[in-house]
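Retro notes (design track)

What went well: tokenization of the new backbones is finally stable.
What didn't: we kept losing track of which sequence belonged to which structure.
Fix going forward: every design gets posted as structure first, then sequence, in one message. First example under the new rule, 191 residues:
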């Protein structure tokens, strides 16, 4: 029996972004991402390894070299719409969210189990690390375009901020591609 079980869920790639390695989270919309083992070349979170950050401060001193399992940020359009509605906005522009990939079609996407895989028919495979917790940085980008709304992002995005992921098998990802979801074949943790 396989350790990863194919589900009936598939997602369409509806938006792709390149987040240049700079201070801002602002992404540039692209039609294709050429994903290597190190992620998206020249992107903010590119690299096989990275310096540890506040997300793992209980494990390592900040700046410790660790494996980079947050090469990409993936969100669902369904959850982005829910965030926008809670914020009182008509829609959220992915450009402001530091996102690499926006998908449509997988319900409760932010809570897909860690170690799940998203795979394109030609073999490109992304491994989900875990939920991407909301922070204030996207709020700053939103505020620059929609004054008075930026502070509402972090609370509205709780449980809806998508996931971080890393490239397990390189390849090209294009707008309109379909990704199949594979989940770990294991029972939930029950200590």
């Amino acid at each position: 029996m396989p350790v990863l079980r194919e589900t009936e869920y598939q997602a369409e790639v509806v938006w792709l972004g390149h987040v240049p390695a700079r201070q801002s989270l602002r992404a540039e919309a692209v039609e294709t991402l050429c994903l290597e083992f190190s992620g998206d070349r020249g992107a903010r979170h590119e690299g096989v390894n990275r310096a540890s950050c506040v997300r793992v401060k209980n494990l390592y001193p900040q700046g410790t070299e660790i494996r980079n399992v947050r090469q990409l940020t993936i969100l669902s359009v369904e959850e982005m719409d829910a965030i926008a509605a809670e914020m009182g906005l008509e829609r959220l522009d992915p450009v402001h969210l530091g996102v690499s990939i926006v998908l449509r079609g997988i319900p409760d996407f932010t809570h897909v189990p860690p170690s799940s895989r998203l795979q394109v028919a030609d073999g490109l495979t992304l491994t989900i690390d875990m939920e991407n917790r909301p922070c204030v940085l996207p709020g700053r980008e939103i505020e620059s375009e929609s004054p008075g709304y930026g502070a509402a992002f972090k609370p509205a995005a709780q449980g809806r901020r998508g996931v971080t992921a890393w490239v397990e098998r390189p390849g090209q990802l294009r707008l309109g591609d379909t990704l199949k979801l594979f989940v770990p074949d294991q029972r939930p943790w029950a200590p």
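Added context from the reviewer: The chain has a mean pLDDT of 94.
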